[in-house]
Amino acid sequence: MAVRFFSEGISFQLEGKRKISQWLKQVAAIEGKNTGCLCYVFVSDEYIREINKKYLHHNHHTDIITFDDSTGNNISGEMYISIDTVRSNAQYYHVSFRNELLRVMVHGMLHLCGYKDKTAKEKRAMRDTETKCLLLIDD
Prior knowledge:
This protein is α/β, with parallel strands linked by helices. The chain has a single domain (about 1-135), classed as Collagenase (Catalytic Domain) (3-Layer(aba) Sandwich), CATH 3.40.390. The chain has five helices and four strands; from the N terminus they run E-H-E-H-E-E-H-H-H. It has helices at about 15-30, 45-55, 85-95, 95-110, 120-135; strands spanning about 1-5, 35-45, 65-70, 75-80. Helix 4 crosses helix 5 (about 120-135). The chain is globular. The two termini are about 25 Å apart.
């Protein structure tokens, strides 16, 4: 049961790793899941665009790409997060960078828990759950 944080191709250090790890494990438990290995990799827009093209055949950047390696109630996966997009989205939505980053991080984990966001109804449920999760972290 580990939550790991890396940066690839950019200089980025996540502050409060222990607190964030505990929070993510708490969210998983609330969702009735056990955490295996959750790997967060912080990257640039260019890097995430290449991942998007290579694995998902989309030629654009996004805030997060989640690769699910979960089995049963044990969630595991790799989540690539574009720090560039998180920064611009934070400005666009008038929230702090930290708030947007935490929202994106929990968004990826919620995908591992089975949440989808293809339809308007699914997006609303995902957003509502993200908001509830953000209330759990004292940041």
